[in-house]
């Protein structure tokens, strides 16, 4: 009986050893955690935001195993040139939103964004001026820029209130956005449900671009970038950098696929 148990234990040890050996060989073929390697490669750049191809060493290691890495950049626009009152009425808050959607951006140092891409890329942005202007400033001299309303920011409508009521702008935005997300306050604009469906479609569009160009680049907006990122993660993409909510920052997502 003891001998039989010994043989069973030995068999288990051998199976575990074979499994570990196979896993080790797989790691050698793919390289040690290519996602971390790509994240470190991005961090090595000295600029505030770096836009580049997948690291060639990472891609070459993946190619040995018949795989490759795709990546998607979600960049937020530069800061719009609009002034915000300390306290304002609901009507003034709504006017601020209109101004925010139409004014030019504040000029920024071009060295804040480093671009190292091949020439085969198309840059995508939203139909709103701040997104278009930012994209043209960063990429327009070398790459075609295509605007599409599917990439516009989630719309916002200020809640109705007495004109005598003065609140901080951030509070108007919080109350209005919160009620919109709960399914109210969407008269004349898309609902939260419709906006989420649009974000999912935008994610699908970017995946198609990434499959064709390997790296997809979008210059859009904070909330939309966050929503697209969530949709991509549901589809198996992994986030290696999260700055798409900051002006000129980028959220970067990657996915390893079979070639």
UniProtKB/TrEMBL annotation:
It comes from the Bacteria. It holds the Pfam family His_Phos_1. This is Phosphoglycerate mutase family protein. It comes from Paralabilibaculum antarcticum.
